[in-house]
Amino acid sequence: MNNAIPCAALLLTGLITSQTLAACVAPDGNVTFGDHDTGVADRMLGDGCQTLDGLIRDEDPWGSQGEFVRHVTQVTHDPLRTGALPAPDRARLIAQARRSGVGERLTVKLIAFNDFHGNLEAAGSTPGVARLATVIDQLRAANPQHAVVSAGDLIGASPLVSALFHDEPTIEAMNRIGIDFNAVGNHEFDDGRDELLRMQHGGNHPTDPYTGLGLTDDLENGQFAGAAFAFLAANVVDTASGDPLFPPYGVKEFLGNKVAFIGMTLEGTPTIVTPSGVTGLAFRDEADTANALIGTLRGQGIRAIVVLIHEGGLASGGSNACDGVSGPIVDIVNRLHGEVDLVVSGHTHRAYNCLIDNRDGQPVRVTSAGAFGRLVTDIDLTLDTRRHDVTAISARNVAIPNDADVPQSPRLTPLVANYVALADGPRNRVIGTITATLGRSTNSAGESALGDVIADAQLDATDDAGFGDAVVAFMNPGGIRADLPYSAPGKTDGNVTYGEAFTAQPFGNSLVTMTLTGTQIHTLLEQQFTGCTAGYPADAPPAGQPSNRILQVSNGFTYAWKEKGTPCDNVDPASILLDGTPLDPAAGYRITVNSFLADGGDQFYVLRAGTGRLGGAQDLDALEAYFAANPAGVAPGPQDRIVLLP
């Protein structure tokens, strides 16, 4: 293809005038189709500096070679009729189009991300959705044949600007960006099945006034419009009907070439979300689910298959490396059918770019873009347009800095500004003071300064007569999502704002006080560790915790543990003390947990057996009340309640 700009195009752009058209120089050389020399001399075709080579547009994407041949046949008809192109030259061009290879391959661009978690605003190292949109648009512009996909946790565990409005702002932002598919993740289920279905189909929240407050263009009949893109959940099945909760896959066609996207969440989702929210749903094995769909897709003539999965792994070496990859994604890919061409993963918030062998020993590209919109994965699929299958894949993770080098998309800034303004009042309200940063990082025993404080707040809210009579509170570490900083832009040092507290505890769980025996409390502590399945129901994971989950404990409760390698034998019962006194195995103790844990969340199944349940305040209200009760300032927890033995 001759890369000279036609004079007519220059005229339209104003780079030349009509008086200079006569200066257009006739091209030298032959017409080429890609690297293929047709042997037909290039030439001018009448007025306007149009060349024969420029007319044919072989550099455009073509869905098949036949499509390109038809195009050459059509666009050379008028030059033949006017005498600008002799019949033998036209016949040769058509014949050479068949031999050129143009149209035999098509490059499709996929733009992927995961674990966005409603991070609409730019803050710190998080660029915000307006910069994410800019980078996505830049990648789109490189190839008109593209798809934008998410591997789950698009919503849930979100900052206040999204979560206060039930994550409607994030769905509206993704509608504006124009993503194609989102494979549901575990956090999409945080508020249960019905709320997730509302995210897809629209309608205002049934009870909360913080709903349907988007800009006019984002609403439908004055209400939240729902997602304009498809949620996918191949391995989530309604147990009553046997049907998937959402479509198992989506298909996008590129100039006649179809690519299927199978979407899944991790099989263990019920163990890390509130179990009552997923009642009546079955979460099936990821590899088995994907493999079972291959025949269906083949029956539709689809050979290009991408898996979007909200499960991942760990790797080192940087965002485009894959040193020492480990984790559940390795086993899943090792069992995948050879027809799966690409796996876009998530969940672990780690960025990597891997090749992992499938069940046939063939390497499969596996990517993850970290979290919070700080990266996107730029993926090029090369398709054989005759077989409609993938022949090559390249991928790279692209960093998105939170600075002026990446401008904010004007399509997204009004949406973000609208919700920031609506949230500013609640977010900036000061709820208390702290003497230093309360961090969520744990010591070697698994205890954090903020975890201590949250557990103390929950005990304080439920220890009075008639309010629970609790003697100890336990807090799950996964429910603590951020530090409470002593200093931050826009606030007085030491103040804690509602927005900061919400970011640290975004799930809106209520407190539940119940009675456990001393023996059951020991079982609760043992269930923190991998390998211990004592008290597990029949349908629970057979290996116990995927990794140790150390519950945060309130003041006055202490114990010691040592990882012995023997399941359910890490905590010495004699070390479990309440106010310095060993627990009586047979006695009953009033304990407080949040509603997520009380339902058996995070695989603490023994809590389901608690008796004498009494509901209490929301967890965030309890924390606010604790700050109010300590006006001189709350100090970081001492991190001395849990002891790791040598």
Fold blueprint:
Blueprint: H1 7-13, E1 30-33, E2 36-41, H2 52-56, H3 65-75, H4 77-82, H5 87-99, E3 105-113, H6 129-141, E4 146-150, H7 160-163, H8 168-177, E5 181-183, H9 193-201, E6 219-220, E7 223-224, E8 230-232, E9 236-238, E10 249-254, E11 257-265, E12 281-283, H10 286-292, H11 294-299, E13 304-310, E14 314-316, E15 323-326, H12 328-334, E16 340-344, E17 351-357, E18 363-369, E19 375-384, E20 389-399, H13 413-428, E21 430-433, H14 449-462, E22 472-475, E23 495-497, H15 498-504, E24 510-517, H16 518-526, E25 552-553, E26 557-561, E27 577-578, E28 581-582, E29 588-594, H17 595-598, E30 611-618, H18 619-629, E31 642-644
Q: Can you walk me through this structure?
A:
Helix content is 25%, strand content 24%. Helix 3 packs antiparallel against helix 5 (87-99) and helix 14 crosses helix 18. The protein has 18 helices and 31 strands. The longest helix has 16 residues, at 413-428. It starts with 6 loop residues before the first helix and ends with a strand. The protein is elongated and about 105 Å long. By secondary structure, the chain is α/β, with parallel strands linked by helices. Strand 14 (314-316) and strand 15 (323-326) form a beta hairpin.
